[in-house]
Amino acid sequence: MSPSDGVDLRDLGLRALLSLPTPALRALAGGGVVYQGGRTLDPRLQYLTTISRRAPSLGAMAPPEARVATAGMVATMTGRTEPGVRIESLFIPTEAGPMAARAYRHPDQDPDFPIMVFAHFGGGVIGDLSSCEVFCSILARVALCPVISIAYRLAPEHRFPAGVEDMLAAYRWARENAQDFGARKGRAAVGGDSMGGNFAAVVAQETRRLGGGEPELQLLIYPALDLASESPSMAIYADAWPLSRADMQWFMGHYMRSGDAPGDPRLSPLRATDLSGLAPAVIATAGFDPLADQGETYARRLRQAGVFADLRVYNTLAHAFTAYTGLVPAADLACRDIAVAVRARFAQGMI
Which residue in 284, 294, 343 sits closest to 315, CA to CA? Predict the structure, then answer.
């Protein structure tokens, strides 16, 4: 997810502008309809795309600068946390030291549902606990499960496989301590968006390979599943906002070491040869996204391997829509729809 200038956006009175009728928004964005790859972009995202292209690109920034800019953009675009959801700061022990995390709980949560460990977007390079706070609160309230969001280590200070190792450590810890958060002991799920979705998919595969307890569910939101992908969506949406093909190259240049093989399933879980026996999945993709094909292909391959996969495609939205809930109603609705799908799968798993 590439950054925009949050201060400038606030000065524009963005919320008021985005409440204008669709024709006015399209006119402000330069006129016309953005129709690409058989999809039509949401008019609010069309306008946001237009004004955000004035900001520096990721390629012009160092990672610390990009983190600050992204935090400002998320603060501008995201909505409010869900009413009734209690948010608690905590630390999870790992071999690399204590890892900061946040727990989200709603008083109506179902005690039979598993705890969800969630990893935020950011290519393994940017993003923080606040990046996914609103979405995690939606999950906690709508999916009726406790959610643990983790501040995994970021590259290039900590390159692959640091983030994946943090996710695996958090999953194991949450599974052992689920009852402390009102969930059933020994039951946990994994989830994430973008690179966080990569981590969740890798953990699902690694726990099957290593043994010791697999997730109840893998929630993958516009996941990065093949870091060497040359699929059609990577070409069709190469210049999309807020994630472009150039942005992906910037992320991977910081995330991987020179000797890492992009086809390694721990980097590209879509390249695993055997998907049988994996945890059931809820997978969501955005239409205007270089990664669109990856989630859809993974869902298809999971089904072919006999694994449950609920695929939700949000054709009018763009990558990172979990961060747009305050400005784009369709993004907010998509987030709630995803949470309903998670709740439905948890309920089915209890039968």
Answer: 284
Q: Mean pLDDT across the stretch 102-119?
A: 97
Told to judge if 254 belongs to the known catalytic residues of this protein, a careful annotator would answer: no
Known active-site residue 120: no
CATH 3.40.50.1820 range(s) for the chain read 82-349
**Sign of the alpha-carbon torsion through 102, 106, 107, 108:** negative
Whether the per-residue pLDDT at 4 is higher than 80: the answer is no
From the candidates 2, 194, 229, 233, give the one annotated as an active-site residue: 194
Catalytic residue among 106, 120, 254, 319: 319
CATH superfamily label, 82-349: Alpha/Beta hydrolase fold, catalytic domain (3.40.50.1820)
In the residue annotation, 8 being an active-site residue is answered as no
Q: What is the DSSP string of 69-133?
A: HHHHHHHHH--PPPTT-EEEEEEE--TTS-EEEEEEE-TT--TTSPEEEEE--STTTS--GGGGH
Q: What is the pLDDT of residues 43-62, one digit of tens each?
A: 999 999 998 888 888 889 99
Q: Is the Cα dihedral 338, 342, 343, 345 positive or negative?
A: positive
d(CA 216, CA 145): 12
Catalytic residue among 42, 289, 310, 332: 289
Strands 281-288 and 188-193, bridge-based pairing? unpaired
Q: Do the beta carbons of residue 114 and residue 346 sit within 8 Å? A: yes
